[in-house]
Write a structure and sequence with these properties.
Layout (H helix, E strand, L loop, with lengths): L16 H7 E7 L6 E6 L1 H14 L5 H11 L9 H31 L1
Antiparallel strand pairs: 1-2
Helix pairs in contact: 2-3, 3-4
């Protein structure tokens, strides 16, 4: 599918044009002629890939930082319909953070045994 570059500020979303290229894959013209409405399609797979990249790049990121990032990724018109995805993503990230803490304590206890 072709990607569309949009100015996210026009949609009331914080961010840049680059983020939009990852998530907006096409527009759909609903209706006919000039009375038709262009609707932005949200690509869930691109969202997931972008979140994974954010986690990789922002190793010290907090859950609040990730929520802010997710809020920026979802088009305002489709936020309510995709709120479940943000909640699921945050739950997954909490699990990642918990594992990091557990692995850190295991490493510290092993280091103390030497």
């Amino acid at each position: 599918m072709p990607q569309v570059i949009l100015d996210l500020a026009e949609l009331g979303i914080k961010g840049s044009k680059i983020l939009a290229t990852c998530h907006v894959t096409k527009t759909v013209n609903e209706g006919s002629g000039r009375s038709g409405v262009n609707r932005i399609m949200f690509d869930v797979n691109s969202f997931k890939k972008s979140v994974k990249e954010w986690i990789r790049v922002n190793a010290d990121g907090t859950e609040i930082d990730l929520r802010d990032y997710c809020d920026e990724l979802v088009p305002a018109q489709q936020y309510q319909a995709n709120q479940w995805l943000i909640e699921q993503t945050l739950s997954w990230y909490r699990h990642i953070l918990e594992r990091r803490v557990e692995e850190g304590s295991d490493f510290e206890s092993e280091a103390g045994e030497v």
